[in-house]
Amino acid sequence: MKRRKVGNLLGLAVLSVVLERPMHPYEMATMLKERGKDADMPIKWGSLYTVVANLEKHRFIEAVESVKDGRRPERTVYRITPAGREEYEDWVRELVGTVETEPPRFRSGLSMLGILGPDQAISLLRQRAAQLDERAAKQQTALDRLRPLMPRMFLIEVEYDIAMTEAEARWVRGFLEELTSGALPGIEAWRRWYETGELPDDFGEFVEER
User: Fold this and answer.
1) Secondary structure (H, E, C), 137-153
2) Rounded to the nearest 10 degrees, how much is the dihedral formed by the CA atoms of 56, 62, 68, 73?
3) Residue 55 CA: distances (Å) to CA of 24, 35, 49, 80, 191
4) How far is CA 88 from CA 13, 34, 77, 157, 195, in A?
5) What region does 78 belong to: left with phi over 0, alpha with psi -120 to 50, or beta?
6) Half-sphere exposure of 168 (CA within 13 A, CB side)
7) Rounded to whole angstroms, how far apart are CA atoms 161 and 13?
8) How far apart are CA 102 and CA 15, in angstroms?
9) Measuring CA to CA, how many Å separate 98 from each of 78, 79, 87, 210?
10) How buried is residue 117: exposed, middle or buried, by Cβ count under 10 Å (0-12/13-18/19+)?
11) What pTM value is reported for the model?
12) If 15 and its partner were Cys, which of 67, 88, 156, 180 is the partner (CB 3.0–4.6 Å)?
């Protein structure tokens, strides 16, 4: 991933809305929240004005006017610049076309799972599987609600979420089946290690025989 002048993903979200038309930061936040962008990327709303200022500093957006609505403070309206449009498109190309190297939190947890022992692992993975089912159901409900209202092109990230959630659930259930049936190679050695704290003399007990 290249180092960007404005690396906060909220910057990408801001560029996505001002690409449509000029607007002030409060309007940006309102539109992004309405579209559920905080579910698509990590967004800290408190940093919105800082991100807008940084985008302006690097000439990705520019102020076009200030507007006043009743007693509210004057608000600056921004529009995207040609440089901002180029940055926006390049950023999206990178996100879609480049595989991230940062491991997900679940993978990090799996790498340490051995310390908990098989029984705790089974309990926790059952808990995760149930949560994944609940998440997939909510995602599907949201997708079904939005389909009559929006073109599919603007819903593909929800389809992706559902596919990833269901794929993870299948993997978790497959691993659970190995744990609960005792088919996982070395599970009894793992259990003894957890219960006694003593590693076996021969690590071959943990290894699948071929």
Assistant:
1) HHHHHHHHHHCCCCCHH
2) 10
3) 13, 21, 10, 9, 54
4) 9, 21, 19, 18, 54
5) beta
6) 20
7) 18
8) 25
9) 30, 28, 16, 36
10) middle
11) 0.76
12) 88
> Which token pair is 149?
């209202």
**124 Cβ contact list (under 8 Å, min separation 6):** 116
Query: CA–CA separation, 91 vs 4, rounded Å?
Result: 9
pLDDT tens per residue across span 14-59: 999 999 999 999 999 999 988 888 777 778 888 999 999 999 999 9
The pair of three-digit structure tokens given for residue 72, joined into one six-digit string: 């509210």
How far apart, in whole angstroms, are the C-alpha atoms of residue 6 and residue 104? Answer: 23
Please write the tens of the pLDDT for every residue from 106-147.
Answer: 999 999 999 999 999 999 999 999 999 999 999 999 899 989
Which amino acid, residue 22? P
| Contact of 6 with 12, CB cutoff 8 Å | no
